[in-house]
């Protein structure tokens, strides 16, 4: 289903799911854009094609404020000034309506066999998380866990995340776990001192 002016959604989550689903079918990725708030509610929100706008040009071997040289990374240019987007606005009925949109893209779309790699369509599922942690308990690394998911899910396109997504998820969850453990230990130590 294509977005149309005046389409109504109950929540911003519904808007985002709809536009990302549409983008997946067509073959582009979505970036969640700016919003305008009023009375602690989001009144207006934009969703862009991920290729909207242009990146600021990086100067190689740039220096920061302190004069130290900082490393710059060569990042492939992915933005091309595409104007495709939707804008939703909260109405008096507390529902969001599409008030502005551009459907035309200034670039080609991703082929159907590569759509699962689009950033806005990737998620580390609960099954992938469970498989990852069970594999790590058995001293099986993330790469092998990813291959196991590939086989059990019937292909990489069904895994819905990349190996890098899985690695990032594991590192993040491990650091959160360590942080919680440190907090508990610190709390226990401070309790004993009393």
**Strand coverage percent:** 15-25%
- Mean pLDDT comes to 82
Order of helices and strands: EHEEEEHHHH
User: Major β-sheet, in short?
Assistant: 5 strands, antiparallel
Description:
The structure is a single chain. The protein is of the alpha+beta class and 194 residues long. The protein is built from 5 helices and 5 strands; from the N terminus they run E-H-E-E-E-E-H-H-H-H. The protein has helices at residues 12-26, 126-137, 142-153, 156-159, 163-193; strands at residues 8-9, 30-38, 41-49, 85-90, 96-102. Strands 1-5-4-3-2 form a 5-stranded antiparallel beta sheet, covered by helices on one side. Strand 2 (30-38) and strand 3 (41-49) form a beta hairpin. Helix 2 (126-137) crosses helix 3. The mean pLDDT is 82.
What topology does this entry show?
Layout: E1 8-9, H1 12-26, E2 30-38, E3 41-49, E4 85-90, E5 96-102, H2 126-137, H3 142-153, H4 156-159, H5 163-193
Antiparallel strand pairs: 1-5, 2-3, 3-4, 4-5
């Amino acid at each position: 289903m294509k977005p149309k002016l005046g389409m109504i959604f109950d929540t911003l989550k519904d808007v985002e799911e709809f536009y990302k689903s549409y983008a997946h079918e067509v073959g582009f990725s979505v970036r969640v854009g700016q919003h305008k708030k009023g009375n602690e509610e989001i009144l207006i929100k934009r969703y862009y094609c991920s290729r909207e706008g242009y990146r600021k040009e990086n100067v190689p071997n740039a220096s920061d404020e302190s004069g130290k040289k900082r490393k710059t990374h060569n990042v492939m240019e992915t933005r091309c000034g595409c104007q495709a987007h939707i804008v939703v606005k909260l109405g008096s009925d507390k529902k969001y309506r599409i008030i502005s949109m551009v459907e035309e893209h200034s670039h080609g779309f991703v082929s159907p066999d590569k759509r699962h790699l689009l950033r806005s369509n990737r998620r580390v599922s609960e099954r992938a998380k469970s498989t990852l942690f069970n594999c790590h308990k058995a001293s099986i690394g993330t790469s092998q866990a990813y291959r196991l998911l590939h086989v059990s899910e019937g292909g990489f396109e069904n895994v819905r995340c990349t190996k890098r997504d899985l690695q990032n998820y594991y590192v993040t969850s491990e650091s959160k776990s360590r942080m919680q453990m440190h907090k508990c230990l610190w709390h226990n130590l401070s309790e004993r001192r009393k």
